[in-house]
Each structure stands twice: as structure tokens, then as C-alpha cells.
User: Fold these one by one.
Assistant:
Number 1:
Amino acid sequence: METITAGQYYLVYNALSFTIATMAAATLFFWIGRSQVAPAYKTALTITGLVTFIAGYHYFRMFESWSDAYTVTNGVVEVTGARFVAEYRYVDWLLTVPLLLIELILVMRLTRSETVSKSITLGGAAALMIVLGYPGEVSGGIDGTRFLWGALSMIPFLYIVYTLFVGLSKAIESQPASVRGLVSLARYVTVFSWFFYPIVYFAPFVLPVDGGGATTIIEVGYTIADIVAKAGFGVLIFLIAVRKSEEETVAA
Amino acid sequence: METITAGQYYLVYNALSFTIATMAAATLFFWIGRSQVAPAYKTALTITGLVTFIAGYHYFRMFESWSDAYTVTNGVVEVTGARFVAEYRYVDWLLTVPLLLIELILVMRLTRSETVSKSITLGGAAALMIVLGYPGEVSGGIDGTRFLWGALSMIPFLYIVYTLFVGLSKAIESQPASVRGLVSLARYVTVFSWFFYPIVYFAPFVLPVDGGGATTIIEVGYTIADIVAKAGFGVLIFLIAVRKSEEETVAA
């Protein structure tokens, strides 16, 4: 395991702990807020909270694994021989990324058949994207293997981006005027936050950093992306659900 | 205890952790979603969540036991002398497999006497199936003992499959048209995912793998089967309960 500085060690350590707190708080916010929305949007908020719950579990595991992998004595970092289990991120994404797309589809309240078909195609593409990225990430090197799998993973990634912008544009136009801006924003946040992941994945190829620096960039970068894509995105889903619930109650 | 590679160790490790997260998330999903269904289906969702809750507990135990059985230092796996307690799976199935059949029976909303009689015969056959498989699994060898008990266990297994397809076919025809497809799908998912278990059980007899490879195939195979049979199947039960609740509210 490469050596890192005490500064790098504590930056990742604190970022992981920050994210445990953020994900736990976000989960409680979504589930407590669930009682404020109409029945049609309750499942969307249940799933929004599940995403942050699952992420919170994995950040807890990563925090423990990170603490086990190093000892810091008088400011000197030493490796213990235990490996930091970076795969927790992929295990997390395999569950949460399809669910993130499903919460967006649910809050749009499409027809039943559209909901099922979009959930299957977008959720399936998301799972494939994660599975293809995994071998590159665990290969350990900043080399051709990492590059190849990363490139393959971009195919379903670009399909999802295309579907969100072209395939769902008609569905977005059919949303009530008051939430059209929010739904469109949720779509931009998805794409913007998701582009963070391939940028982080490929960053070590272009940045002049050593092993410890690369690890720090990858861990902190993915952490920021996860907070925006899960907790931040979830707040938008919550706002859409609340606003649509209010309008439908007035209309009924 | 046989030696395994670091790749095999972490594959099982990550699969077990993934399943803890999946089962915990599924449990919360079913119990939170319970407020969205009519009173007649609440018990079905309570039990659906119990199945994933019990499985989550056992996956947590298995994860701890797996971590205790090996140490990985600088990529080298060594056995600690502590045994991986594989029986957790059977203890789990003894509780969850009868409950899985009962949740299917409950969501079909048969007459009270049919509900009781089907729960006893199917639940009892499921318990017998698990009890008969156990001596073969713990015998430790890929030999005649494993084969004999596995074969005996197939008798109640085939009785359950027969009952689901022949004994329950009339009850499925009496379901509302809108859920008939889903109920039939739930039956297929049950049989499809359950066939995974005997396939995994007998796989070491036919695959050219050593001890570590056999352990990995068994653990990962059972894990995938558990996710489909418990969390995936539970989502179908949830969808059936929600749809039937909506129709009955409209009809009333």
C-alpha cells in the first residue's frame, strides 16, 4: 500500500466521517418528510431515503476500513498491512445508482408502463455502468486496464445521459408548469454530479500526483460527488414531491 | 480450512457486505411501504420485511464470521483457525423460507381455511427441505453424504414446486386481472430463484474447482439466490399489495 502524508490521511478520514453524518441526516429528512406528500409520491421519498441510507452504511464501512489500514503516531503515517477496501464504493453504487434513476422516474409520475420500462432500461444501464467500471478500479494501477474498463463503462453512462436529455424531454414538458424547472434541474444535477465520477476515475492519468495524492483525490472526489448526487439530488426530489402534492390537493 | 486467494476472499467479503446493505434497505422499504396498502395486505408486508430483516441479521453474522476466519496482510490470505460458520445460512432458511411461502399465500388473499392449510403444508414442506439439506452441507466433503441428503431434500422441494404450479393455479385464476400477471411472475421468481439453491449445492460435484473455488462458488451463488428470492420477490409482493389495495379502494 502506498504511503500517504498525515495531512492526506486526515483529509480522507474527515471527509468519510462528514459523509456518514450527511447521509444519516439526509435519510431521516426524507423519511420524516414522507408524511407531507401525497400517496403517489411516497414511494419516491422512501427510495430517496434508501439511497442515502445505503450510502451511509457504506461510508461507515469505508471509515472503519480506512482507520484499520493506517496508524498515525506522532504525525507519522504507517500502513498496517490491512487493505483499504475501496470496493465498498462499487458495491454501494451497484445498489444506489439504479435507485437514484428510479426515484427521478417515480417523482415524474409517468404512466405505469412507462415507469416500468424506463426503470428497467435506465436502472439496468446504470448497473452495467458500475459493473464495467469495477475491474478497472480494483486493478490497482494507473494503466491500460484502468483506462479500458473506464472507457467501456462510459458507453452505458452516455446512454443514460442521452435518455435523460432526449428520451425524457417529452415527459418533462408534460410536468405541471410549477415543477418543470425543478424536474429539469434534477436532470442537470444528475448529469453534472455524475460527470464527476468519470473525471475522478480518469484524473490520476493527467494529474502529476504520486500514489498517496492519487488516493486522496479519488477518495475525496468520489465523496463530494456522492453527496451532491444522493443527498443534494434527494432534496430536489423532495421539493418536487411537496410542490406536486400541494397542486394536486388544490386541484382535487 | 482450505486456502483461498485474496481475490476469492474479497469477492465473498464484498458479496456478504452488499447483501447486508440490500437486506436492510429492503426491510425498511417494505415496512415503510406498509402504510400504503389496505389493511388486508399489511401482514403480508410485515412478513416480507421480516424475511429480509432475518436475512440481514444472518448476513451480518456471516460477514463477521468470514472476517474472523481469515487475515489478509499485504495481499496474502491466511487462515486464523476460527471456522467460517456456514450453518448461518440454514438457520436463516429454516425461518425465512416458510415465511416466504406464507407471504405469497397472504398476498393472494385466499379464503381463511385455504390460507391456513396452504401455510401449514407449504411452510412445513419448506422447513423439512431445509432440515434435510443441512447434514449434507455440514458434512464438509464433496461426497456421498452431501449427495444423499441433497437428494432427500429435493423431495419436499419438488412437492413445493408442484403445489405452486398445480395446486395454486386455480387460486391464481381467481386473482383480479390487473395482478394476475404479477402473481404468476412471483410464482416463477420463487421457482427460478429456488432452483438456484440445489444448483449451487450440487455444483461442486461437476465443476473442476478446488476447495477455495468451491467455497467461493457456494457463498456467492447462495448470496445471489437469497437476494432474488427475498428482496426481489418481496418487491413483487409489495407491487401486488399496492395494486390490489388501489383497486379495492376504487371498487368500495
Number 2:
Amino acid sequence: MARSPAWASRPKTRGLVLDVIRAARSISRVELAAATGLTGATISEVVRELLGDGLVVEAGRGAPTGGKPRTLVQLNPTARYGVGVHLERNTCVIVVVDLAGRPVARTSFQGVASLPPERALPMVAAQVDALLTTAAVERGKVLGVGLVSYGPQDRGAGVLLTPQPTEEWRDHPVAPRLAEHLGLPVLLDNDAAAAAIGEYWLGAVEPHSTYGCIYMATGIGGGVVVGGEVYRGSSSNTAEIGHISIDVHGDDCPCGNVGCLENYAGPSALVRQALETPGLARRLALDPAADNFLTEFARIAAAANAGDTEARALVERSARYLGHAAVTLAVLFDLDLIVLAGQSFAVAGSTYQAVIQQELDRRLFSRRAHPVRVVPSVNGSDAAAIGGAVLVLQSELTLGRGRPEDGPRPVPAGAAEAP
Amino acid sequence: MARSPAWASRPKTRGLVLDVIRAARSISRVELAAATGLTGATISEVVRELLGDGLVVEAGRGAPTGGKPRTLVQLNPTARYGVGVHLERNTCVIVVVDLAGRPVARTSFQGVASLPPERALPMVAAQVDALLTTAAVERGKVLGVGLVSYGPQDRGAGVLLTPQPTEEWRDHPVAPRLAEHLGLPVLLDNDAAAAAIGEYWLGAVEPHSTYGCIYMATGIGGGVVVGGEVYRGSSSNTAEIGHISIDVHGDDCPCGNVGCLENYAGPSALVRQALETPGLARRLALDPAADNFLTEFARIAAAANAGDTEARALVERSARYLGHAAVTLAVLFDLDLIVLAGQSFAVAGSTYQAVIQQELDRRLFSRRAHPVRVVPSVNGSDAAAIGGAVLVLQSELTLGRGRPEDGPRPVPAGAAEAP
């Protein structure tokens, strides 16, 4: 289809306008032109299209300015939906979010890791279908599924690159297969990156902020967002802070590195350290054979919050190690904000935030330039799943696909590999 | 001036086309359209403008394809020039580069740190003028000056934020003042970031590469380039690897952090360690009172290369610590390449490259995704100065200034602050 040069960049233009409307919550056409640098004619045309597609609606009038009253536009939250599917070791969390990124339905279930992908993925698909039905969401309004997980991935092909949760999952085309089962596009991405972008979409961070997200559930991951987009590096395997070295003289890690953060901080390390503290282990009747150490972690954190001295000391030390890594992340990426997301931060309360903030305040090389704030995620435990859904919304609506370097598209249903 | 929507993005379009011509060395209009995704009509118009401005020239014909022979275009290297001024502690290096980024003239002088900026900057300006005259470069073709230095900066205001080289330099408007003396735009930037982008402009890296540069002269700095642009973070104070912690149990550093890389590796640490090795210190007659420890560093490196066992052990250990930090940089930024630049790498020979490559090969978490190569800079000791000149070329010609978020413009002569 021949297009005049005037609209050669339309997907990016549309995407930019929609993203500014999203961030502003409601905005006039005049303000849109000022914010985007686009001409009034372009704004009128793009807004007309967005109104026609139902993505935005007119929404009252702005404050009187002495001239003609300005009609405001805003997102129409029920115009489109995204689905987030978060695979976290043995748990699967599914959320449906509206165009504004707000969850409208949620479910979770155990046992994913004990099934091979050929049996787990149809089960996940059935859960997604059931949730959409329960939430009475029209299938035609669902843009796709963001499937998010941890560890190295090949986003383009939609495969996990490590034997997690089991060997059978490695290199299995999880995104294409789930897309086939659902008849919806599916994109694969990193859980921490997803959690990071969720903050942006929901307006919890300044639009032009450069921020990092430390994501702690079972392990520790990270993501960085620059100008409203996830920092991708060369292969979208970025900010894996769980496996950076905080101690050059530390122990070898199975990952190949030495003195890795996850062996010092994080839930499994904390539980191990608590088991090595006889008084504490006895008081909490910690179970060394517990399948799910997240339960033991939550109990140690609760004890710390209730005032148990030994528990508190372990949690604070864990937080200092995390703060140490947060300093490295902030220095290298020149961040102005760090968000703490994921269920382990959610259950552990405010100790992590307070101690990490202390470490940043004390140790930042560039603190003469600007401070770095630490805040909890607005999305708490479901940050990764919500972020997965947001990645789909962003991918389909606001990133703009004018050029190939905009990145892989979600894998459409029926395709073996992403284009 | 009213512009039709078709050309609302012209600066970015021109910049993109020019950058593709630069990278390709010579290219036909058909190939340009394919590479950029722009229409043939747009390409023809933009190339006509670039030919008219003298930035590109026609350059013979491409290989026969059976159809009409394709005329090639290429950069006209003598169309424009950039000047790089590198302030490194007490030394100032000045280079003039052509549009292709190739140095056409160079000078250096000592003593910058022993003068207050009010006296040093006019001296620098006089040296720039003299060099341009010597090189017979038309003033009208000089796009501006890239002034590069180390440590935290406020690029927008053109000031250094730390008392380096002396307290009088902190917060002095170095870029605006130099611009006034020269009657040329001056931008301020980081030496390691400059060294990094120099590789890109000269075509020493793949255009879509995500790579890091470790820059070692007196201290250790870093820069990251993504898609042909320096990664800026929130304030352009990024990748300061000299002051990331490699040892959570290490000593406090004056910068506020603990176990900083520069206290383990790098020229001053190596000289200190050599002075603490009696046999070596005696053999090399190392001078503990030496003003310029770079001379002592070069002698230790030369001894190591000549086979001195103790010197070799120190250099290799220093390289392992650097490799350790390189792993962190590569993991967090998801790099596919690391470039080693700066005079200390240049004098020390290939040991650093070999050992850092070993560390990366051994320790990378994401090595299942892709390996990371380590290469020496094509620009060696003058990488920062050359990079400073390249930053001006890029800023003025290929980054495109369609929107405010494209970053600060060079400070024009006569302005107290960048817009």
C-alpha cells in the first residue's frame, strides 16, 4: 500500500501521541501539540484516528483559559486488554489488565514446573481462557499475552535458554506454542524488565525518568527503563544483578562467576543463613527440607518485623548486600530512581527500602550530580505479571513499528518463529 | 517558518541518511532506501540536499546488476572538521579530525592543572587556533569543539562538578568560556564516552553493536554505546567503573563507596603495589616521589612485557581485577563487545586484553546467549580527544535535532549556558 511521505512515520507518531495521552491522564489537543512537538494538523488527524478506533474518548473540558474551551481526551481503559502470564519456578500468575494497565482479573496456580511444557502450556492457555471469560472481557479486545520468566532468553524466537524450570523447557518454543493454543500473539520477556515497565505505564514514575527495578521473588533480577522503554542491550538479557559479583574474593557460583549477589542476599541465601543460626532456626521451627523456601523466607521476615533480633540482623545484612548491588546498578546506569518489586520485597516490609536507601545515600560516586531514590513498586507481588501485560500494550500500541530496529513483534498465533 | 508535516522530522531523516552513508563508506540510493526504510523520493531529496551542502559526493558506480548502473555516494571527508580537546589531569591533547573521524592534526602540552581555568582556557584556545592554522583547515568548516574530561559533569551547563584538576575548576563554566575564546560551539563530555563513540564513527564496530569501552589513562572510566549513540542515563554520568565496588568487604574509598576498582587496578594502584614489592622497586629504581605516576606505570608494564616475573604478576593481577569489573559491565549492559582505550592500555600491551578476555569467557552469566569479545581501540592513546571531535560531528550532523529530548546542543559562542 503506497503511503505518502507525510505518513511514513505514522506508527511512531500514533504511538507517541497515545503514550502522552496515557501519561497525562487527560489532555487537550493544544497541550498534545506542545508536548510532542507535532503540528496542530498532525495532532488533529492522529486524535481523530484514535477516537475512531475507540482507544481514546473525549472527556470534558479543560480549565477556562480565556479563549475557546479546550476539549480534553483520555484513554478509554476498556478499549483494549493485555494478558500477563508470569512463570516463577513452580507458580504461574495470570493477570488481565485494561488499557491503563490496571488489573481487572487475576489467578494463580502451582505445579507448572512438575509438567513438561507440552502439558503445562495447554493448561496455562486454559487458565487464560477461563480468566477472560470470568472477567467478561471480549476476546477481540485482547491484544496479546506477555509471557514473562527469569533467566536468559531468546526473545525473538520465544524460547528460554536455560534448563528452568526443568531441562525439558530449555529451547522449547514456549511463546509460539502458547500462541497456537490461545490464538493470540504471545511475546516472551524477562520478569524483572516487565516489572520495571509496569511502573512506567501506570504513571508511578516520571515519564522521562531513567530508573532501575530490582525484582526479588525466588531469585533476584533487574531491569532498567530509559525514556519509557526497557533497556535492551544486545540480546534483552540485561541487568541480571543476581549474578553480578559483589566480592572478587568470594566463592565460585555455578553460573561461572564468583561472589554472586544471590549467594549473599535474597530468599534462599537468607533461609540458609537462618538455618545456620541455631537459636533462630529453633524459635521459628525452620524446616531445612522445605520444598518452597519462600514460605520460610516470609516467616523470617515476619519475625524480623515483629522484633526478633537475630532475624532482624539477617534481614538487614541481606538488605545491605542488595544495597551494595543497587549502588553498582545506579552508578553504571546513572539512575535517578530504583523501584523494588516482587513478592519477596512485598512480604519483607520496609526494611529493604530503608537500608538500600541508606547505602545509596552513603556510597554514590555521582551523588554530587543527583540523589537516587528508592521506592516500592505500586504493583507489589504481581508486578511481573502486570508488567507482562503492559509489555503487550506497549508493543502493540505505543512503541510504533515504523522500522525493523523497533524490535521483535509478538509471535502471532500459528507462526513457528517471530519474524 | 511553517513546514509541511512531510518534513517535520527532517533533521532526524538527514542525520540517519548521513550516518548510513558514513557507515557504508559508499552506497547507492537504492541501497540507502533499503537500509533506512525511507522512500526513494525521500532519499533522492535528502541526498540532493547533502550533495548541495557538500557533505557527500558522488563516487563512481556500483557493480553492474543488469539494470541501470547505480551511482554511489560517499562522505566528503574534507567537508567538515571537528576539534577534540582532552583534559587529562595535567595534560591537554588536541586533535583535529575530518568528517570521517580521521585525525588530520594533533598537539599536546603539559601544565593545564597548574593554572586556574581563567588562564588555562585562553591558552587552550590559542593552541586550538594554532593547530587549525598549521593544518590549513578553513575555520568555516569547523563544526565545533568537543571538550572531554573525567569525573562527574553537568553537560548542559558545561561545567565540571568536582575539584579536578583543582578546586578552582569546579563549577567554572569551562565550555561557555572556551566557546567565547574560540568563537566556536563547545560541548562538554566524558572522556570514556568520547573514546567509545570514536570507535563507532570510524567504523571499527558493527553499527548495531551494543558495546562498552573501558578507558584507562590516569584513572579508569567507562562508556556504553547502543545503536550508535552514547548511553546517557539520567545525567550523562554513566559507566564510572573506576568507582564501582568489586569487594563488599574492601576498604572505604574517598568517593564514598567501598572496595573501588581503582584502588585495586589501574596505574596508581599498580605503582603503589610495585613500590610495596622490594625486589621490583629496586630493579626498576621506582621513584615513590614521582609526580607523574604514569611514567612509573609505563616502566612496570615494559618490565612485565620484557619478562620480569614480579612485574608480570602485578600486571596480570591488575588485569584480572579489570576483567572482574568488565564482567559486571557486560552482564548489566548485555554487551557484545568491550573496547580497551586510552594511553595506559596502549603502553601496557596485550596482557590486559588477553586476561580480560579470559575473565569474560569464564564468568559470563549470559554466555549461553552470546560471547563477549575484547578488542583494543583503533585510536589508542588519543581515543578520548578523537572521540571528543567525533561527538561534535555526531551532535551537529547525524543525531538530528527534531525534538528537545535529543539532548543539549553544543554551547554556542557567547552563550553563558546551553539552551
